Amino acid sequence: MKYYSLNKKAPNVSFKDAVIKGLAPDKGLYFPETISPLIDNFIKSIHNYTDQEIGYEVIKQFIGNEIPKAALKQIITETLSFDFPLVDIENNIKTLELFHGPTMAFKDVGARFMARCLGYLNVDSKKKVTVLVATSGDTGGAVANGFLGVKNVEVIILYPSKKVSNVQEKQLTTLGKNIKALEVDGTFDDCQTMVKKAFLDPSITDQMQLTSANSINVARWLPQMFYFFLAYKQLKDKDSKLVFSVPSGNYGNICAGMMAKKLGLPIHGFIAATNANDIVPKFLQTGDYQPKPSVQTISNAMDVGDPSNFIRILEIYGNDFEILKNDLHSYSFTDDETRKAMLHMYEKFKYISDPHGAVGYLGCKLYQKENQDANCVFLETAHPVKFLDVVEPVIEKSIDFPPQIQSVIHKTKEATFISTYLELKSFLLDK
Ligand SMILES: *Cc1c(COP(=O)(O)O)cnc(C)c1O
Q1: Edge-to-edge strand list for the sheet holding 2-5
Q2: How far is the CA of 40 from the centre of ligand 1 (A)?
Q3: Dist CA 13 CA 17 (whole Å)
Q4: How far is ligand 1, taken at its centre, from the CA of residue 356, in Å?
Q5: Where are the alpha helices (DSSP H) in 45-174?
Q6: What would the pLDDT profile of 302-318 be if each residue is shown by its tens digit?
Q7: Residue 116: is it exposed, middle or buried by C-beta count within 10 angstroms (0-12/13-18/19+)?
Q8: In a mutational test of the pocket of ligand 1, which residue from 333, 381, 385 has the highest number of ligand atoms less than 8 Å from its CB?
Q9: Contact 224, 110 (CB under 8 A)
Q10: Which residues are known to be catalytic?
């Protein structure tokens, strides 16, 4: 399969090059040249397939012959090594829990798939690949865990000192092996600026093969289609009007759902649910896309002022605003509404959700005011334990640490403290 740059000023590349490069030389996101629907019979008989078989059917056209069948199946098996349960909340509202992986956020799926693809594709190369990534929390943990022990790949994570939660810091700094953490004296934006500078610095890139692992990478984006199919497999009423409500920040997750629909999954529509960062809801009202600086909220994984995958959504819908508006609804909710939704779900249904999931739930409720017959599934994108400081005071109950968290919380942090770009550079070149 070939991929083209959405800026249309760079050559088309193979899956391998799209994964290793991340972003095209013209700074465009890569997009597959063709998208072929799956045969009807596969979708009608989806309950007869294992999760791994479903993953293979869904992804194979996007890889082509670049990874042989057996190796690709192995990668998928290792990616989908945990459950994706569809849980009833109330009449016509369910949640798809995406937090049963090793770092308890949906980013585990994309990170594990990308890590294994990169490991496979780079196996014959003499050159190590270095993944350089800046994180504000969830991405770093998922990438660290996903790449742990992958041959020929090393990972360097920059995170802002004292600005990630205790749980998140432990997930980044206690793994060892091929994972190194740099604790940066600064903000997330400072980390990101340093990473971007390194990618453009020939004195570094002449010496080493650098790549990024954020959601613009096709190998992180496309495997997120898997769990839309896995949700459908578990759905009892397959003829109902299925709508997904996706808590959205960079819009990678929802954009994968739209690809699943392109492949033929019978999804009636999508709700992009978000916090005060309301660029997409505003766009759908006015037709005008106006990025702006992000504002801080309690659902901070969605504090994004210029969602990077939005351009892929436009491409999927042929840049046709009217067609897009038929499929996509988008709402913004305040922190206060989000807290009330968390409390409501806890008191009424004994369900503890994280703030991002709560925003997704609110999306279902608002949509159903006008569409009573919609069967709405909201994505629960992280386990509430990852947002303890927000969740516990709202529900007035303490949350037990699941085994994945218990296993890291008492380990000793290992990180190198840096303050300047020069320190990053000498860290990279000294190794
Ligand atoms: C990353 C993240 C999101 C946003 O996902 P996008 O694909 O960027 O829209 C939502 N919730 C949680 C918990 C996340 O970590």
Answers
A1: 13-14, 2-5, 30-32
A2: 31
A3: 6
A4: 8
A5: 51-63, 69-79, 107-121, 138-147, 166-173
A6: 988 889 899 999 999 99
A7: buried
A8: 381
A9: yes
A10: 107
Angle separating helix axes 51-63 and 69-79, nearest 10 degrees? 130
> Which residue do the tokens 């067609």 mark?
323
Residue type, 402: P
Rounded to an integer, what is the distance from CA 102 to the centroid of its chain? 14
pLDDT tens readout for residues 18-73: 998 888 889 899 999 999 999 999 999 999 999 999 999 999 999 999 999 999 99
In 3D space, the residue among 154, 186, 157 whose CA is nearest the CA of residue 169 turns out to be 157
pTM of the entire predicted model: 0.94
CA distance 82 to 78: 9
CB of residue 105 inside a 6 A radius of ligand 1: yes
- Sequence-distant contacts of 254-257: CB under 8 A, at least 24 apart: 254/313, 255/221, 255/309, 255/312, 255/313, 255/316, 256/221, 256/222, 256/223, 256/224, 256/225, 256/228, 257/224, 257/225, 257/228
- Determine if ligand 1 sits within 6 Å of the CB of residue 380: no
User: What single letter denotes the amino acid at residue 80?
Assistant: L
For residue 378, the one-letter residue type is F
Domain 82-105+221-400 CATH assignment equals 3.40.50.300: no
| DSSP state for residue 104 in the 8-state scheme | S
Using only C-alpha atoms, what is the Rg of the chain?
A: 21
